[in-house]
């Protein structure tokens, strides 16, 4: 499996994962669904995230992750699956508020965004449950805890990924 990930750091910071982590998380989300894939991950600030969220989803304010699947006709043989945009400060803030290790939350955002690029969504209750279950399985294989289980911010279990 060849997974090519272009990483763009428009808003770098200490919590931003390495390129190798981004690739590993995207590869895990792709699993057996794609033999080869090419995508970009852009880490942005709140202004860019908010602008994109308003423009493409009609929602105000920044959001944690946005996915933009490539719209390429099926008969065109390319590996490009699309782009993921992640807002660094929102990821950091959510991880702190939810008592989760920031690395775990980054992994979740990449897995979540990649699954969107593959056509998964959470527009209905059934779709949301199926997507969440897939995310939990992928993250568990990567050694991370279930991102949908509430964690006490003071708990020692919130300090590091499950490995």
In short:
The chain is an alpha/beta fold and 163 residues long.
Describe the structure in your own words.
- The chain has 163 residues and is α/β, with parallel strands linked by helices.
- The chain has a single domain, classed as Metalloproteases ("zincins"), catalytic domain (Collagenase (Catalytic Domain), 3-Layer(aba) Sandwich), CATH 3.40.390.
- Helices cover 42% and strands 18% of the residues.
- The chain has helices at residues 19-30, 46-57, 88-98, 102-117, 125-142, and strands at 2-9, 36-44, 65-69, 80-87.
- It is globular, with a radius of gyration of 15 Å.
- The chain starts with a strand and ends in a 21-residue tail after the last helix.
List its traits:
single chain, 163 residues, alpha/beta, Collagenase (Catalytic Domain), four-stranded mixed beta sheet, 5 helices, 4 strands, globular, disordered C terminus
Order of helices and strands: EHEHEEHHH
What is the count of β-strands? 4
What characteristic shape results from the CA principal axes? globular
- Average pLDDT rating: 91
Give the C-alpha Rg: 15 Å
Indicate the percent of residues in helices: 40-55%
What topology emerges from the helices and strands here?
Layout: E1 2-9, H1 19-30, E2 36-44, H2 46-57, E3 65-69, E4 80-87, H3 88-98, H4 102-117, H5 125-142
Parallel strand pairs: 1-2, 2-4
Antiparallel strand pairs: 3-4
Helix pairs in contact: 1-4, 3-4, 4-5
